[in-house]
Amino acid sequence: MRRLTAWIGGVAGGIAAYRFFRRHPQAEPEPPAYPEPTEADERAEELRVKLAESKAAEPAVEEAPSEPAAAEEEPEPVPEPESPEDRRARVHEEGRAALDEMKPE
Asked: How far apart are CA 82 and CA 56, in angstroms?
């Protein structure tokens, strides 16, 4: 009888706790309306200044026009796709080779 009473008390306590927390959710702090400036912003500005200085110091490099013959070349032909059987055989061979390398001699 004591076990039954303990079980009933535990269940009733659990239900009461569930209802309490469900009705009274924990108040979350509201995020600030605007982000506060941090030290990272100052460092970012310093980096932007350094980047601008380095770009100004670099001489402008103009690319020479490519040779007209290079533009007239035909693109490489696209290789024909492998058949599924050929691809499967190639993959199995690569797998067997990898296994042979891993096996102790």
From this structure: 52
pLDDT in tens, 35-63: 666 666 778 888 889 988 888 877 655 65
CA distance 21 to 27: 11
**The dihedral of CA 42, 45, 50, 53: what is its sign?**
negative
What spatial distance separates the first Cα and last Cα of the chain, rounded to whole Å? Answer: 71
Please name the residues in contact with 90: beta carbons below 8 A apart, sequence gap of 6 or more: 82
Cβ atoms of 90 and 82 within 8 Å: the answer is: yes
